[in-house]
Input
Amino acid sequence: MSDICRYGFGPEYQQLFDMVERYSRENLHELSARMDDEDWFPRDEYRKLGALGVLGITLPAEYGGADMDEAAQAMVAHAIAKWNPSISLSYLASDNLCANNLNRHGSAAQREKYLPGICDGSLLGALGLTEPGAGSDALGSMATRARRDGDNYILNGRKLYITNGPEADLVLVYAKTSPEHGAHGISAFVVERGFSGFGIEKELDKMGYRGSPTGELVFEDCIVPAENLIGEENKGVRVVMSGLDLERALLAAHCVGICERALELSVEFAKGREQFGTAIGNHQLVQRMLAHMYTETASMRGFCYQILKECEGLSDDEVGHGEIHMRTAASVLLAGRAINRVLDNGMQIHGGMGFMREMEINRLYRCAKILEIGAGTREIRELIIGGELVK
Ligand SMILES: Cc1cc2nc3c(=O)[nH]c(=O)nc-3n(C[C@H](O)[C@H](O)[C@H](O)COP(=O)(O)OP(=O)(O)OC[C@H]3O[C@@H](n4cnc5c(N)ncnc54)[C@H](O)[C@@H]3O)c2cc1C
Output
């Protein structure tokens, strides 16, 4: 269904997408029911993605990466999400939010230390920005502090709702080094799981994306070596803003994968379920729901891949503001709204059966809502777009 070449990407992208889609269908799909039931993260299966060559897709070949761009990473997220949204979400947190930011902004020594493990799957990454008192106003209200103490920084604070947090080996953490400078006093650090003063407060119990671990992290006089500062002190806002635009473009592709699967399931169900002496798919009101699902999925796929194309080759100075800031926000605004309508129709087609937890459509439905909340809520996306339009 996803002809990637149609959007102007070369055959190597199509090959990558097809390979990951096939692997996910044959190997990851069967894990999703247990992941949902037991909130189990299949770490060994995640590691195998390294051997397959899909981890570290944007990272340099010298570290074991594939040296491709964020569009390729989006295609991997799309292909996995179709068959196992939870693994795709964890993949995005590790491979994009953590490792891609580390590669773009870290030193050669930091890249050398952490990126090979990301590529072979032995290391899982996370990104810690949100806090109990700092969600949409993540930068302004950030309370986590980092104070220089000789060769170390001492971190104190909490990070909430962190994807992969409970399992992660390394977390890219934002903290205020010069609180008096507000958003311009933020720095980024790599914190390793074993650092003194770093702990996992709790693993959170979610309605959807179960099996992709989410946690609250605490830093209590956490000792972070100064060499783990990413980029320059007080320049963390650049890392956040450039990363957020790409994250939004990638999350839109993740939504496309889920919608494609929801449509497949709904068509299958509509052909098999009979009422009034015929398959419900022969009733025109059911066909209308399928038609809307198809159209919304096709339009989000087109817009999402168009924006990914526009992200190609952008430097850090070109993202986080202006046209691309607006367009990546628009891509995920559209995708987040559309996926909720697509899943609503998918559930409706499944009737009472769809309300049963064990149904795949039910699992997908429970994922949809967060896609209008994470990576900037629907309202924050609207504020970005509206603000740029009236500038
Ligand atoms: C499953 C999951 C995974 C996540 N993963 C990560 C992760 O890996 N790393 C990370 O750092 N964070 C992560 N997050 C956090 C996520 O990014 C935040 O939840 C999100 O940014 C919203 O913050 P909040 O929940 O505090 O909501 P709030 O900011 O409190 O917002 C509540 C409501 O108020 C609205 N609102 C707030 N300000 C305004 C305004 N100015 N104008 C209009 N409306 C406004 C919001 O749009 C929303 O509707 C995750 C969250 C979840 C649930």
In short: The longest helix spans residues 236-272. The domain at 4-123 is CATH 1.10.540.10 (Butyryl-Coa Dehydrogenase, subunit A; domain 1). The beta strands are 125-128, 145-149, 152-163, 170-176, 186-192, 198-203, 214-225, 229-230, 274-275, 278-279. Residues 93, 126-130, 135-136, 161-163, 206, 209, 214, 370, 373-374, 376-377, 379-380 surround flavin-adenine dinucleotide (CB under 6 Å).
